[in-house]
Design a protein that fits this description.
This protein is of the alpha/beta class. The protein has a single domain, classed as Rossmann fold. It contains 16 helices and ten strands. The strands form three sheets. Strands 3-5-2-6-7 form a five-stranded parallel sheet. Strand 9 and strand 10 form a beta hairpin. Helix 13 runs parallel beside helix 16. The termini are far apart. About 30% of the residues are buried. Bound molecules: adenosine-3'-5'-diphosphate (A3P). Adenosine-3'-5'-diphosphate binds next to helix 5, helix 10, helix 14 and strand 9.
């Protein structure tokens, strides 16, 4: 009898304990949505450039609140009005480079309470049809944000598209431009891998990287191959420099962002005049993925999609050597122009 009572008591305690833990987790998850109960934005007006040190840490969770609900379609128009939410043109754009780590950079910057990302690549400036729709169309593509926050978008095609610098200049001549680069040969192979995967998905055959990257007639590097051309960073940058001074660019080391993201992100925070808010807590290494993943708080964390971090096909070492030799002088010029040196071979 006594034993039965003890078992019953243990069972009750277990249920109560589970309920308590469950409620605690639920509460933590809801912290980000507390703003929905308040008529005024609690961090509004405290986050301008004059009071940068006053950003409450809660802002990180806050961002997962109303803005998140709005994106899911759960926030009402009234809440948006009360919270003063607006769709702002970007103050900074990640203009490239394709396969440099543009998605990782955008997602990681979005950890910052003062940054709001445009989730999709908008392709406004590189696509004539979109560009013809006008700047209001572009603005309407932007996420809702608080006036003190900055919107960032990324469209890697901007970096290599001829018309883009002038078009961005016309929108905002003092915009900040972020370029994330990787060792050029690795980037070219990553670029090839993405296209290859697309072909395989459609059951199509494709050439080997070696065949595309090296001209079979001359045995020299095939500069007509897009993956090669995109990696000649200096050529593209020079076009941009006709419109923007170098001070308006910040170069992110995409190889370092993979292995050691925090210092790279801290440099970007500085460039964007944002107070340092992204910390090691927000980034954790996921051994299964082999990459750093993002932690918003103890409940919300995420890794990038599986399409980021593909296994590259093996490439003939002589082709790699040839490509590296080819990129070398362009890299030197790139270091010289940007003032940032990389240990690329
Ligand atoms: P690979 O697929 O070649 O490894 P982009 O977003 O510009 O297309 O860049 C994709 C690259 O981002 C990937 O190239 C990957 O190496 C890199 N990357 C950087 N940080 C990453 C992260 N935390 N998770 C996944 N991929 C990351």
């Amino acid at each position: 009898m006594l034993f039965k009572q003890q078992a019953l008591l243990r069972q009750k305690l277990f249920v109560l304990g589970s309920l308590a833990i469950g409620s605690l987790l639920y509460l933590v998850a809801r912290v980000g949505s507390l703003d929905r109960l308040q008529p005024l934005c609690p961090i509004d007006g405290r986050f301008g450039p004059h009071s940068q040190d006053e950003i409450p840490m809660r802002a990180l969770q806050f961002k997962r609140g109303l803005l998140h609900e709005f994106r899911k379609g759960n926030a009402t128009k009234e809440q948006i009005r009360l919270h003063n939410l607006v769709q702002q043109l970007p103050k900074a754009i990640i203009i490239g480079v394709r396969k440099g780590g543009t998605r990782a950079l955008l997602e990681m910057l979005n950890l910052h309470p003062a940054v709001v990302k445009a989730s999709q690549e908008i392709h406004f400036f590189d696509n004539d049809e979109n560009y013809a729709k006008g700047i209001e169309w572009y603005r309407k593509k932007m996420p809702f944000s608080y006036p003190h926050q900055i919107t960032i978008e990324k469209s890697p095609a901007y970096f290599i598209t001829e018309e883009v610098p002038e078009r961005i200049y016309k929108m905002n001549s003092s915009i900040k431009l972020l370029i994330i680069v990787r060792e050029p040969t690795t980037r070219a192979i990553s670029d090839y891998t993405q296209v290859l995967e697309g072909k395989e998905r459609k059951n199509k055959t494709y050439y080997k990287f070696e065949k595309l990257a090296i001209d079979p007639n001359t045995c020299e590097v095939n500069t007509k191959y897009k993956a090669v051309r995109t990696s000649i960073y200096t050529k593209h940058l020079e076009r941009w420099l006709k419109y923007f001074p170098i001070e308006q660019f910040h170069i992110v080391d995409g190889d370092r962002l993979i292995t050691e993201p925090l210092p790279e992100l801290q440099l970007v925070e500085k460039f964007l005049n944002l107070p340092p808010r992204i910390s090691q807590y927000n980034l954790y290494f996921n051994a299964t993925r082999g990459f750093y993943c993002l932690r918003f708080n103890i409940v919300f964390n995420k890794c990038l999609a599986g399409s980021k971090g593909r296994i590259h096909p093996e490439v003939d070492t002589s082709v790699i050597t040839k490509l590296r030799k080819f990129f070398h002088p362009f890299n030197q010029k790139f270091y010289q122009i940007t003032g940032r040196t990389f240990n690329w071979p």
